[in-house]
Amino acid sequence: MTSHDAPGTALVTGASSGIGWEYATRLAARGWGLVLVARREERLDALAKEVLKEGGAGVETLVADLGSSEDLSRVVGRASGNDVDLVVNNAGINGYGSFAEVDPDLLTRVVNVNVVALTALTRAAVPGMLARGRGAVINVASLLAFAGDLPPDPLPQRAVYAGTKGYAVTFTRTLAAELAGTPVRVQVVCPGLTATEFHLGAGDTPVSGERRVHDEGGMPAADVVTASLAGLKAGEVVCVPGLTDAEAVAR
Ligand code: NDP
């Protein structure tokens, strides 16, 4: 991760679509070997084929539900392997909905994927990185970490989601301070509205109104990854505003 280092192995969670898919292809193009993590095996297999066709270094797929403690343990085991020099904690789910009505089990899953897994994978990887004298962790948060009460929703309906992203920001900034002076860097990326499957509520949440946002606005996932990888050496917080939700809806 420093100028004298060759790329090693990057573990990317949520690699089966959107921003994670983009991280994986971009890192492969830079010579990184990949460990791709998500639930949808067929998507991971398709990504692995694409990456190898483009001449990428090795690719492993790890089918896992990061909301399940058993599956998370397997991924933690891989993240603590002595070849993992970059962890991209990108997997995330939203759990939007009226707080008083939303399924409590869904909220627990949001916290498990967005907070517990991110923390556990960082904890698994950092000691080896410190021992080897190289490494980085990228945590994908959201601009909602700072402003979960912004429009367009008449009610925010995303207190827990925004809270998990606030955790990712504060956790990363505080850890960055602790790791200052070591060769290990941690970065938190805060994208604005991005055109991915996230707003379709795939599998997890039916999100009224969000399909419109997806169809009408949102920056490409590539913009998020470009800013993140460009900023990795410089700082621990990278905000990628793109369009605001309100601007996207107005388009
Ligand atoms: P996508 O829905 O396209 O991607 C989410 C990824 O997370 C998928 O690969 C999904 O894979 C994976 N994932 C979800 N749940 C689990 C789980 N339980 N276990 C393992 N993997 C899981 O959305 P984005 O690419 O947009 O989202 C990536 C990150 O960016 C998220 O953390 C999101 O909060 C954040 N973000 C997105 C914004 C946007 O506007 N799109 C804005 C700000 C932040 P699978 O279903 O195969 O498991």
From TrEMBL:
SUPFAM superfamilies: NAD(P)-binding Rossmann-fold domains. The keyword Nucleus does not apply. Belongs to the short-chain dehydrogenases/reductases (SDR) family. It comes from the Bacteria. This is SDR family oxidoreductase. Keywords: Oxidoreductase. GO terms for cellular component: membrane. Signal peptide: none annotated. Coiled coil: none annotated. GO terms for molecular function: oxidoreductase activity.
